[in-house]
């Protein structure tokens, strides 16, 4: 018999895999138990219900974003930092894509998760505002505080709705890929394009070209 913590880890990993592949609403605890080759009772020993598994996965996602979405101490931000933030966001969104795909349903069915998500959203937007102001201070972006605030909110709206947009616009909603997610990151960077300083423009333009995914590929 696998140790308790090992079985728990397997449940978490399998849940993330199936939720991402099929959507959270399509996966039951019985599906999870059968996929793992364990009894439903064994699964319930570790997690009282599916919401508890989702809460654990959200905690992982929350912790991951909190770790990278912050300004570095003691130095100015660079265009390389912009690449780091965008790539980190892309990786987190892809790894936990079911959260974005089924977000409205998840929050409606779990008030505790909804409260945690609201706190997380406020924290992310405060951190993103600080990061954007860091890019202004370092001369990469030329924006005032009102423009930074609008950019932060617009970026959040794009990032949190991108997966659902892809599912609504594509003929095969389950056919998501990291490349399609990259176009969402491109859209966020494109919001800044009119505010990039002349000195930083070549590097930011190169980053835009690297992230670009043709629209016909997005529409599928």
UniProtKB/TrEMBL annotation:
UniProt cross-references to PROSITE patterns, sorted A to Z: HTH_TETR_2
Domain annotation HTH tetR-type: ranges: 5-65
Entry keyword Plastid: no
GO molecular function: DNA-binding transcription factor activity; transcription cis-regulatory region binding
Keyword Ribonucleoprotein annotated: no
Gene3D superfamilies, alphabetized: Tetracycline Repressor, domain 2
UniProt cross-references to Pfam families, sorted A to Z: TetR (PF13972), TetR_N (PF00440)
Ranges annotated as DNA-binding: 28-47
InterPro entries: Homeodomain-like_sf, HTH-type_TetR-like_transc_reg, HTH_TetR, TetR
UniProtKB keywords: DNA-binding
The name this protein goes by in its record: TetR/AcrR family transcriptional regulator
């Amino acid at each position: 018999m696998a140790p308790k913590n090992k079985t728990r880890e397997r449940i978490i990993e399998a849940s993330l895999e199936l939720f991402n592949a099929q959507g959270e609403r399509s996966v039951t605890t019985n599906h999870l138990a059968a996929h793992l080759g364990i009894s439903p009772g064994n699964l319930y020993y570790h997690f009282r219900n599916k919401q508890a598994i989702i809460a654990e996965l959200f905690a992982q996602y929350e912790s991951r974003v909190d770790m990278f979405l912050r300004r570095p101490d003691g130095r100015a931000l660079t265009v390389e930092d912009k690449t780091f933030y965008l790539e980190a966001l892309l990786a987190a969104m892809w790894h936990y894509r079911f959260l974005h795909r089924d977000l409205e349903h998840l929050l409606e069915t779990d008030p505790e998760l909804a409260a945690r998500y609201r706190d997380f959203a406020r924290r992310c937007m405060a951190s993103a505002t600080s990061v954007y102001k860091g890019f202004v201070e370092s001369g990469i972006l030329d924006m005032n505080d009102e423009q930074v605030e609008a950019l932060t909110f617009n970026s959040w709206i794009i990032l949190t709705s991108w997966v659902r947009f892809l599912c609504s616009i594509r003929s095969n909603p389950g056919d998501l890929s990291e490349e399609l997610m990259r176009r969402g990151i491109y859209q966020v960077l494109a919001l800044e394009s009119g505010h990039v300083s002349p000195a930083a423009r070549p590097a930011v333009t190169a980053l835009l070209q690297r992230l670009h995914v043709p629209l016909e590929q997005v529409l599928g």
